[in-house]
Give the backbone structure.
Amino acid sequence: METLSKIKVVIATVPFVDEDTPLATPAYLKSLLVKNDIDCVGLDLNIEIVNLIRNDPRKKDLLNFFYKQIIKEEIVTDITQMLYHYVQRIMSYNPTHIALSLFTIDSQVFTKWLTALIKHLYPDVIVMIGGPGLETLGARNYNFPERLKDLGYVDHYFVGDANDNFINYFTNGTTEGFDTVLVKQTSNAKHWITPNYDDYNFLYYRNSSSLPVVDSRGCVQNCEFCDVVAFWDKFQNLTADDVFEQMLELSERYNIYRLQFASSICNGNLVQFRKLVKLIADHNDSVDFADQEFFWHGSFIIRKKDRHSEELWHNIKRSNGFLYCGVESIISEIRIKLGKNFNNEDLASHLELGQKYDVPMNLLVIAAYYSESEEDHLYALQWFEDNKHYVDNPIKQVQFTTLGILEGTRLQKDIDIEKFNSELPMRNAHALKLKQKAEECGFTVRAFY
Ligand code: SF4
């Protein structure tokens, strides 16, 4: 292991992540390393590839490479250029270490090719990979990184709560917590510091003005289909003061006032959330110029009626909040059974208050949940009819997905997979009808199927 002064680390995201906002991991890890006097560059290179293929007429073929490793002859040159572009961008900093961050499993194909090329051209550079994209979060089955390590493409991999181990590796040379699937949620709050986006080029993003801040991890709920709780043992959050301080620091450093809370839920700790929203709202009231007001968005738990007071709604409005609300099934009983503790009366109250205080929100709906009956499907169609007065205020968009079974989840353990698969055509047909119905009712719809 080199002495600290000789270490140079480049941390980079890997495509393909279909996101148009900065990915936070390189900025967080850079911040931690710099604080420990380690020379480091943190790059979100994924966006360069996203931009490259956004309007390419062969986009479908290119995506088939990233998602399924299908390589048509027409795209061989493009893929080769992308790989060399990545290597050049990374190696232009003369790193001793390269850490690649995989946000989802859709980054695996490119990672495999990229690490092979790096090791071929620069065998002495230490290559590490990490992140939830090594496998699905809850699966804890890491064939992919183990295989890359066997092939000699990577020297180390790390998963999950790697902050402490990552720092220890560079400062002490220890590899505890590396190359293992048994990672505990150990890192302490002192490592949750303000991300360092100095190496990001904000002009690359169409939503350039939205910076991620990780305010919490884990979740206070336990939805059967979700792998967040399978992965994080417990919910941990920063205090309102800490989050607000990071917001101030980021806005001063980058002159950007739009933040995204890059966590599974922003209102998991209601006491801290109320305080944070008030801090932001008061800040917004106190500034001299409108462009100094904060705007934020985050994933928001709908709770039982009256848990979110009118004062809170008022402050969310004043703080310029935008909420992403997981409704999942439109049917109360099914929603509660899958792990979300609110019924349609609570949902109605949430929408009414959202409308009263003009708080914009997107609803996230799993269309045709596997346990919904034909009758439930008809109810869901009618629900959109009955709620079309919420079009635009407060519901800006309805985002539909279909149910997938993630490894390590409660659903995976309990599901009758044969039945689930045999009913797929019916669920798909229901999902399409629901999307159509929401559109007919005037909602702006985004369907991920
Ligand atoms: S509320 Fe969201 S993050 Fe939490 S368990 Fe449910 S789906 Fe997962």
